[in-house]
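Lab notebook page, bench 4
Experiment: in silico fold of construct C2
Operator: M.H.
Input chain length: 117 residues
Purpose: comparison with the prior construct
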Amino acid sequence: MKILKRILICFFNLCIAAGLGSVFFFSYQFGYGAFANQPAGNNENYKMDVVIQEGETQEEVANQLYTMNMIDNPKQFLFRAKFSEYNGKLKPGTYEVSPVMGIDDILKRLTQMEDVK
């Protein structure tokens, strides 16, 4: 009976350790993707126009960029935007973006904090 109890305690501890390790791993991946400014692709010749309408939310823009394969994860885009100088500053207009641009580069372009096309 003592051996079974020890086995169960060890199994329980291993499950907790694996769960904590998974949480750490996925949190790190998410944070790295949001703040590392890594591009979603490497094709410099592939460019598309993003159109932001008046009153369009950051979530809608993030989903549009994701659908166009310009970003890897809309939640990472929103998280990065939330904790940047660009939060809530997206401006209506048409912007040329490329998958070789990182999230910061795209945010800078969509807030017109650099020269636009």
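Observations: The mean pLDDT is 89. The chain is about 50% helix and 10% strand.
Next step: discuss at group meeting.
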